Amino acid sequence: MPHIINPDECILCGACEAECPYEAISEKDGSMWIDPEICQDAGDCVEVCPVDAISPA
Length: 57
Known about the structure:
Strand content: 15-25%
Radius of gyration: 10 Å
Distance between the termini: 6 Å
Largest sheet: 2 strands, antiparallel
Strand order of the largest sheet: 1-4
Structural class: alpha+beta
């Protein structure tokens, strides 16, 4: 199951985007977004998020 980013908690630092081995994370409409079609649930993004804005869907 892919992860999701809570846009109310995300500070748009980009750490998750840089860490994702599948390039599933990008900025979309002013917040970071994880494409569920690409996400392979590696979890690397969760570990680097400084504000704990990423969780399992």
